[in-house]
From TrEMBL, chains A, B:
Organism taxonomic ancestry: Bacteria, Pseudomonadati, Pseudomonadota, Betaproteobacteria, Nitrosomonadales
Principal cellular location given in the protein's record: cytoplasm
Protein known as: tRNA (cytidine/uridine-2'-O-)-methyltransferase TrmJ
GO biological process: tRNA nucleoside ribose methylation
CDD domains hit by this protein: SpoU-like_TrmJ
Domain tRNA/rRNA methyltransferase SpoU type: 10-159
Enzyme's top EC category: transferase
SUPFAM superfamilies: alpha/beta knot
A GO MF label: tRNA (cytidine(32)/uridine(32)-2'-O)-methyltransferase activity
Similarity comment: family membership: Belongs to the class IV-like SAM-binding methyltransferase superfamily. RNA methyltransferase TrmH family.
Gene of this entry: yfhQ
Domain of life: Bacteria
Subunit structure: Homodimer.
Keyword line: Cytoplasm, Methyltransferase, S-adenosyl-L-methionine, Transferase, tRNA processing
Organism (species): Denitratisoma oestradiolicum
């Protein structure tokens, strides 16, 4: 089983969601990170056109969503569940931060089915609902305003789950970038610059000050391209020609 | 200057946003992570009641948003800008992943003002807009569906920026958790269990099998509370009494 396919063992449970738009946005957030199993416990309005509009290209995730009557039913088949909650809880379940929670869930998916549980937009999760979970987790947030929208919280956790399970690999390659300038080409440009500065009197050989070290530093930046060097040298040649 | 106040040096620039709801949701996403400086380049509709509705408790961020005519104006005063884009670009600007981009932006905010630039919901950023930035970054996503909603992308990046600048500290404390059971209390419970199992004949001293090691493993789990131990011992005592 590949690590990416472990994402299929992680279900996202929304407890009593009020706004169908948030259900749709949740489906989209899940699919962008490769998750597909959405479970809804007593949704207020579902299905609904607003959910479909917000799901955008994740309509398949929405259509496959399972609707349950209770949290117990939603968690059937799981062996580990983490509750996401913004509030401090009057409970003995052990808390952690979202990133650590995602890593733990990802590791737990190797053993079997797991769940990530989110509460109602206004009231959050009840103590009874949290008590079904083995862990609860908090998204680090601004202490003066920690109220993430429901689907935003899902997005952050699904993003963390993907990073925990699927190595992003090398960053996307730079397309259309020119061939990089080599060391000796940059040196030739520096030499050209020095000759041009001397020929126009800008650079006094008796008192060169910091001109050439400055130019070297400017051109030492990573990513200088062969063509840029050629353009600059052509420009210098033209300036020198004109002054002759 | 504290690390948290460096968040004030990071502006979020939305280029030509189409949906006022996304502007509001962006303001909320920013505020939950402690960012406050929103810049809008040629928003299609702004201000708008839908933006206010989606901003929820971040109406202050929305009201302070700066509206600009051009990307150049939006970036005035910054020395470093990162473009977030989902597509591969025909440009030589260096790409990286969102997490590394957030770390680089956070570090760059020490030197001065920086910007994180997001494109239009449908068309993304134009090549001209990306060319204003020193870096472009991609949110790792499902290769089959990488289309994050605009405000979701902002949420992920602001979350990464917060983590890069503000150590979340210890997880929130467990409130209402009882006093933890100490080693010797757990040992007394194990001893009690053994006596109970012997007294009712469940445990044969001549062939104890794995009963006690199993019980020890069960009770070795972290977080057992003093009161739980007391309840279990009371229960055992009552069972033993009844069998007498």
């Amino acid at each position: 089983m590949s690590d990416a396919s472990l994402l299929d063992r992680i279900r996202i449970v929304l407890a009593r969601p009020s706004h169908p738009g948030n259900i749709g946005a949740t489906a989209r957030a899940m699919k962008t990170m490769g998750l597909s199993r959405l479970v809804l416990v007593q949704p207020k309005v579902f299905p609904d056109p607003q959910a479909e509009a917000m799901a955008s290209g994740a309509i398949d995730v929405l259509n496959q969503a399972r609707v349950c009557d209770s949290m117990a039913e939603a968690l059937e088949g799981t062996w580990f569940a983490t509750a996401i909650t913004g509030r401090r809880r009057e409970l003995g379940v052990e808390p952690c931060w979202a990133r650590e929670a995602a890593a733990e869930l990802a590791a737990s998916a190797v053993t079997g089915e797991v769940a990530l549980v989110f509460g109602n937009e206004t009231s959050g999760l009840s103590n009874e609902e949290v008590a079904f979970c083995q862990r609860w987790a908090v998204i680090p947030a601004n202490p003066e305003y920690r109220s993430l929208n429901l689907s935003q919280a899902v997005q952050v956790l699904c993003y963390e789950l993907r990073l925990a399970l699927v190595a992003p690999g090398s960053p996307p390659p730079v397309l259309g970038a020119g061939e990089p300038a080599r060391h000796e080409e940059v040196e030739m440009l520096l030499d050209h610059l020095e000759r041009a500065a001397l020929s126009c009197g800008f650079l006094d050989p008796a008192s060169p000050k910091r001109f050439m070290p400055r130019m070297r530093r400017l051109l030492a930046r990573k990513g200088l391209e062969k063509e840029e060097v050629n353009i600059l040298r052509g420009f210098l040649a033209a300036l020198m020609d004109k002054g002759r």
